[in-house]
Amino acid sequence: MLTGIAFALAAGVMWGLVFVGPLLLPEYPAALQTFGRYLAFGLIAIPLAWLDRVELRRMTRADWREALKLGAIGNVLYYLCLASAIQRAGGPMPTMIIGTLPVVISISANLLNHERDGRLPWSRLAPCLAVILAGLACVNQVELAALAAEPGSDYARYGSGALLAFGAVACWTWYPLRNANWLRDHPGRKPRAWATAQGLATLPLALVGYVAFWGWSAATSNPFPMPFGPRPWAFVGLMLAIGLFASWLGTQCWNEASQRLPTALVGQLIVFETLSALTYAYLLRGQWPQTLTLVGVALLLVGVAWAVRIKPEYAVPPAGMAP
């Protein structure tokens, strides 16, 4: 149990790094950071593919198409929305919005996958959602007050950042449901090989996107220096670090935790990512969160922990479960 919790904590600490890139490299466009991150992840996946070469040979053309879809939406589009949101609205608000993922996924599964995963009673889920929305409102109030105190505040930019964060939530709500369905439909396949396949499928997307951005910059006489921007060593180093630790090692730690802990507990521990991302954001700001922000974080944690403890109800009990 303790080992599993330690792995989940490590995964959250590393996943929190994806929220740091846009803050450390604010002058770099979100598109370039997105394509750079997944270009690094795809290159890392190439040597990993050798370990799972037998499994990868078993994959059909339909499997590779599915890996491509998952990579395009769950990786590239998700991080493009997230990085853009952080650059526009700062770190805390997008982080809190992403922190609602466990509950949003539960609601989506309630609507779409209830025959397979069971249905969560809406009467018990509604109070949890109210607590989470209250937490988001608290953090939003603090961020809006700070924005109002700044000269030349751009509320439209902040609002668009919040909308992009919700777009990231939509991408990563679709991804785990679709990914879980594929894994359940192919019980004999190794999850590690499937993760590697998605990395390989994402590589050409990231490469094409990177080259396209470079070509667009040249065609529009964009003064941004390509291929690696004004701080090439910082950019390349950060992309490799995020690709290695967040995209690969973080997922491996999460898989280790999932093998050791009950599913209900693992779902709660995803809040380590939210806490890590908020910690990094305030460390970069060099300030301590305000009391209302801490109240909002506490409400989010309580709401998510409360929601994921609700047991699903099955119309027909799954095999092996007593009616």
Quick synopsis:
With 323 residues, the protein is mainly alpha-helical.
Structure, described:
The chain has 323 residues and is mostly helical. The protein has one domain. It contains 15 helices and no strands. It has helices at residues 2-15, 21-24, 30-51, 53-57, 61-89, 92-98, 101-112, 114-117, 122-149, 155-185, 191-219, 232-260, 263-269, 271-285, 291-308. The protein is globular and about 60 Å long. It starts with a helix and ends in a 15-residue tail after the last helix. Residues 319-323 have low confidence and may be disordered.
Task: Lay out the secondary structure.
Elements: H1 2-15, H2 21-24, H3 30-51, H4 53-57, H5 61-89, H6 92-98, H7 101-112, H8 114-117, H9 122-149, H10 155-185, H11 191-219, H12 232-260, H13 263-269, H14 271-285, H15 291-308
Helix pairs in contact: 1-12, 1-14, 3-5, 3-11, 3-12, 5-6, 5-10, 5-11, 6-9, 6-10, 6-14, 7-10, 9-15
SSE ordering = HHHHHHHHHHHHHHH
Q: What is the number of strand segments?
A: 0
Determine the number of helices (DSSP H or I, runs of at least 4 residues): 15
Query: Proportion of β residues?
Result: under 5%
Mean pLDDT: 83
The radius of gyration is 20 Å
Number of domains: 1
First CA to last CA: what distance? 28 Å
Principal-axes shape call: globular
Structural class: mainly alpha
Uncertain runs are 319-323
The proportion of residues forming helix, as a percent range, comes to over 70%
